[in-house]
Write a structure and sequence with these properties.
2 copies of one chain form a homodimer. Chain A is of the alpha+beta class and about 150 residues long. Chain A has 5 helices and 8 strands; from the N terminus they run E-E-H-E-E-H-H-E-E-H-E-E-H. In chain A, a hairpin with a 4-residue loop joins strand 7 and strand 8. The structure holds a DNA duplex (30 and 30 nucleotides).
Amino acid sequence: MKTFIGTFVNKIDAKGRISVPAPFRMVVQAKGLAGIALYPSLTDPCIEGCGLDRIETLAESLPDDALPGVKQDAIAHLIIGTARETPFDGGGRIVLPEDFMAKAGLTDKGAFVGKGRSFQIWEPAALADAQAAMMRRLAAARRAELDGSGGPGT
Amino acid sequence: MKTFIGTFVNKIDAKGRISVPAPFRMVVQAKGLAGIALYPSLTDPCIEGCGLDRIETLAESLPDDALPGVKQDAIAHLIIGTARETPFDGGGRIVLPEDFMAKAGLTDKGAFVGKGRSFQIWEPAALADAQAAMMRRLAAARRAELDGSGGPGT
DNA sequence: TTGACACCCATGAAATCCCATGAGATACCA
DNA sequence: TGGTATCTCATGGGATTTCATGGGTGTCAA
């Protein structure tokens, strides 16, 4: 498996540790990596994660020097600056940085959500809310579409 | 690890010493270097740093087509001319030059921010401001994009 | 001589590693 | 097909090491 797929809820212990779901772990271990990179999501109240190869690729894609006039890489710099390398312990866990947990509202449980090449870690309740909100938006969009092309659908 | 990733805040003691974060130290030590090179940032109110090797590379690997109108050699000479070598002490610390500290507004704490091939040292509050400003800019850009597709702005 | 600077060691806190345990799922065998 | 053995995985706690930080001493230069 080479993509992050599915949702898994694991416990966060007193030390801030959480087990990375075995399928996710295998995605990064298959690349020969011994840990993941975490960074606060720029758009959602959650932590984002990926193999740290992705971060290093991001860093290497930047121009060799910070010269005036180049602001297109603002996002990359923001991610690189806030990212954090988190190695697996013997049991396949990582330690969630405290400030990341605070930003994502994480306390005792974390929901890993696969996003393909990356994944997110949500507070389970917040994830449910966000997903419900997205469903409502989709339903509304569909209704709006049907309204224009015929009667109210089922 | 071969790139500077993440943010770490350390204390500056009365002697102007500050611990270089262990992950950053390992990046340069992996290259066989026993210290780092510092120079005032040309674009931000902070100190910039990297391995000594990068300064040497800078003198040679200047593309002449990156920025039309900007004298690349001038920038290189500026960096090379102002850069200072700062060796690690036994505990992995460096001594921040006083004039650099003044330019960056550093007093009692310094925030190391990874930038991939290099890193920066900020006054923590100034860093927070700069990052917040950047986030606002990104959010504004995103809003501008969404406006085209019908969302009522906040 | 006096100041600045580099090197040394000490210490507490925090992060990391290690092993143990139990539950659940799977595979295997009768 | 039912039951059992095995394995993986998630979790808990303790021990060890690393790291950041503080201060002292020696050395060199002005």
